[in-house]
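Morning!

This is the sequence you dropped in the shared folder:
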Amino acid sequence: MKKSYIIILIVFSVLSCSKKGTQSIVPGTDQIVNNFQQNLESIYTSNPESIGIMVHIESPGKKISWSGAVGYSYKQEKTKLRINQPVLIASNTKTFVAATILRLEEQAKLSLTAAIDKYLTEETQSVLSRGGYDNTSIQLIHLLSHTSGISDYVDSEEFATKLSSNPKYKWTRKEQIELAVLAMDKTGKAGEKYKYSDTNYLLLTEIIEEVSQMKYYEAIRKLLDFKNHGLNHTWFESLEIGPTERIPLAHQYVGELKLDTYDLDESFDLFGGGGLASTTKDLALFFQKLFNKKVFKNPQTLDKLLTKVVTEETANSDYRLGIWKSTILGKTVYGHGGFWGSMVYYIPEINSSMSIIILEKDKSYLRKEVAEVLIAELINKS
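The structure's back. Tokens below.
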């Protein structure tokens, strides 16, 4: 998914496969997990520039819970990539934010069809008004579906300039909202068209804080019940301590620029548009719990998450509320991707979830190839 790759190009114009073994949690699945690993190794051998690839598959009906990894976590030192080594998941965070908003609606603390002026701070409302936005016409559902008309701060020239001069700069949510609202034109009126914008989700985390009276990252952890759902290796990097015993984050790269995630301060993408660090296992587990109606108290809330917001202009992308609907091998899938090469899918027909990490962003198109071959194996399993 787009995280303003063009801007990074402006800002930072500055092998053999390491086979990390496989993990088969459930007995009796040796043949299929061997096939998974062989497919993963084959794709990596043909694409060593991908640096490293990680996958986790949750398919309870087929008695499969499997993780695989190939390649390196740090290419300069050829450090072997470990199974379920954590990474920054960037825009995959949006699904967590959207689910939290819906949990708050379940508690009758907000309404998706209410105007944002009911929940935002007076300071943020003032900024939006100065930018020409009508706070009474933009609803929460417009933020969730990227149909608010609010521009994306990552497309701002000022954002690019500051990143260029100081990539370790500590950003605030307020600064990024102001860049989007005051330095950029509106993309349209609320409900007029779909235009992906991280700013929508920055506003949503402020709303989470105002409604829950907790820091947004604390509210997300509590309302989505990370502990009881087994999400033991998912946290907001630099805002939370993270797991007591954890593997260091893998390096994630952007092409010939020789840029990796270690070069940037986390606040570049921290406040709801992105921000979470996680593992492939936690990502797949979350989607499996979400689509099996374990996250929400009301089973019908999942239907709301999958709401299609119809706009005046036809959208090329089938985005719902913090999640995309698409197809792979003719099968309906729901998922989300992240700028740094993460992707997670849920395949309803086989009640299975799959998360994929490609450590080289320029090779992130391999996510689809990996998904296709592994989903084919799952479908073919008798």
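Headline: Residues 5-22 have pLDDT under 50 and may be disordered.

More detail when I'm at my desk.
O.
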